[in-house]
Amino acid sequence: YLLLSYVLYHNGLTPPHIAAGRNLNLPLIGPLLRRAGAFFMRRSFQGDVLYKAVFDEYLHLMFVRGYSVEYFIEGGRSRTGRMLTPRTGLLSMTLRSFERDASRPLALMPVYFSYQRIIEAPTYVSELAGKTKKQETIFDVFKVFSAFKNPFGKVAVSFGEAVLLKDFLDAELPQWSTGPATETRSFSEVCVRLARQLTSRINAAVVLNPVNLVATALLCTPRQTMEDSRLRNQIQALRQIATVTNTIVTALPPAAVIAEAERVAGVERLQKPFGDILFASPATTVLLSYYRNNTVHIFALPSLIARMLR
Question: Partners of 279 in the beta sheet?
Fold first, then answer.
């Protein structure tokens, strides 16, 4: 939530208001986040018409007054690293607001966050193993300090191609400016198309970091084991493929990429007379799959072509 505000502030831009789940409205933390731009909302509005109407009006008021708003169209954090199916609730509110008052131009800016290591990794592993998600508490804030002893590498924030809402509606819903288009059956279909376009543009703004590269190469092997020289060649090949697709790729050379994955992601090295071996333990393999899944869409089409040629 706060990373984007930090990036915008240090680039001379006004931090946005942030739609946050009400599970974060904790004692002490809630007031702090609210002063940092957060406004809290339920995960679902179903069954409460009044709540939906009030929230709809609140969002409209921010738009017409010219405030920028940040929300996460996936509706939650992915436990696998893959993009979740987008939710259209806040998008539909945005479209309805723009239909009511289009005096201010409105653009939707896709943002991609690229982590070399996420702080919630152990939690995701336990949830994938079948454990239920634990409710956030005020004590979680103090537990996080113990995680700071671990290396987390770097995080990249990149911006995709913006969707100009007027141009999008003119193309997808031509009657929007002449009548109550938001009440038509096709409106929900337009929201779905807008959500898919935004998720595609988020994925197009991907940044390929060292852990993504090593995870993609290493997890393709039967035992998640590879010779150092072969891993370097594979990393170089993956970088060349990603560059062709106009993906932002780490500038580190292959040897430094591997060293960063060893330092941050827990990839291990075994020295042998014929050359070093890089491998991932079973626990590390599960975590690496998260970072592989972050960027697997870059290689989907090239790998399909390679498979057909082979």
Answer: 225, 268
